[in-house]
Predict the structure.
Amino acid sequence: MKAHWAALLGGALASAAALGDSPCPADGLKVGYYLIGSAYENGHGYDVDLVHELARRLGCKIAQEDVYPRIRVLKMLEHGQLNLGTSAVPTADRRKYSWIYPYFYSKNMILLSKQIGARTLEQLLAEPAVKWGVIRGYRHSPEQDAFIEQLAKRGKVVMANDERDLYAMLSQSIVTAAFAHPFSYDSWLNSPALSGQVTVLDLFPSSERIAGGLMLAHSAFNQQQAEQWQAELQQMAKDGSLRKIFGKYLSADGVAQLQLLP
């Protein structure tokens, strides 16, 4: 009898241990996306595919997924209303309530109308036809923000509400230049109506790349669980799955301009 109860207890402990090792929240994944380039649009995008593939590999069910404004996603993660976010820039404040694992790195490039012949920062500042589109509330690298301040002093800055507004102004020549990331401008730049109208320049070669990462809320994942997600993310990079997902939504040049996990 003692042996019987010992076997049952051992089995129960083993099951509990296995359950504790599970990388999945008990009530399922609650995912928050936000609109940015090819990451998410109308329920599709590389962030959607990434989350679904990770969930499949790790055996986690998706209980909820929806799109929200970027700031709302962060607040919902902080307060436990969501437990998974995507394309997040790691910051000290965000690390207080989530584990963040980058899966790509990107930098702002300059989108310049073909009608503008300037090819240096000094020429851009002096060129009368330059009107620089800037998304309201958006921050760039310190060097790029300093450059925009110089443009603003010369009356060359035009504010856009979001990236769609920015690209619409570029296509209509309301603005003739802007900063943007490859994952954001790629599909717009390669559309038939706009192909060949814009030159992409990198005039800040030493500018730091920003990371886009997976956010796992502390309220739903412990460190051991989160590290299983990180390990699977790294495995996707090694077996080519990550590059394949990005290649589905970005051009070959767009993927090449991103730095994916090795």
Summary: Residues 1-19 have pLDDT under 50 and may be disordered.
